[in-house]
Input
Amino acid sequence: MAQMAMLAGKVAIVTGAGGGIGRAEAKELAAQGAKVVVNDINASEAEETARLITAAGGEAAVNVEPVGAMATAQGIVKLAVDRFGRLDILVNNAGNQAVNPIDEMTEEQWDSVQRVHLKGAFTLIKYAIPIMKRQRSGVIINTSSEAGLGRPIAPAYCAAKEGLVGLTRAVAREQGRFGIRCNAIRPRAADTGLTRIFAAHMDRWIPLIRALGRYWLGERGNVKGDARPETVAVLVAWLCSDKAAHVNGRTLFAFGDEIGLYSEPELVRLVRRPGGWDADSLDTVASEYLSLDLTNNFLLKDTLGDKEL
Output
């Protein structure tokens, strides 16, 4: 156990903790003194995470139910309280992936991704909140993604991940008065379950990725560094501790030795026209005042030509 146990006496739930970022988070929370409920649909991987925690002197319980159902969420929260007596931390990390452009994505793919990411987070937050309210304290971490900023061939994933940012702000504003904090992270890590799923479909999309260049992940899309999941887990543990008691409703970036804070959306320009707008006046104001903001950098006609991907 760490000498400076930031989370001593705390109880945490980490979903999707059988490997990748979730496992690293569960191990780090335990190393900082928390008792951890390890949730993952892969029973052997969940058990291995729990074994690693107990081998290091920590305490862990295992749940192998899929997130995204009300009864399942209620059961995971109940396990934490029944086994460890309280619930202080919820890390919504479980995820899945569907790789297809939006015109090829099936209803089943879309629903599956929303169920695990968005509904999974909602259901667990719903049942965790009453316990945290009674304790007058609690921390919720929602795992978003840079993909939420917009990425081709994964529209369901992008929508779900950015939805989690909106959910984070809503919970932070609604529950902050009860001592409950809710933050989101956009982590970058390699060798996770989702990155392996994505990589398996990459060959078809290499031309598009090359054409998008920096727009694939934004300005920092090509930055290389330490992408181990453990580098993300340190930030999560800190956010869950009293050291971050002032941080609520924010979205942070974690990648190797880099930590970042995302700006909050704001209205960047406003034009008022007495009497309202018509098509001609909108065209004028768009060209004279908003042209730079409305430029579409994603057309890529010169790069891709007429080739369909």
About this structure: Residues 9 and 34 are 6 Å apart (CA to CA).
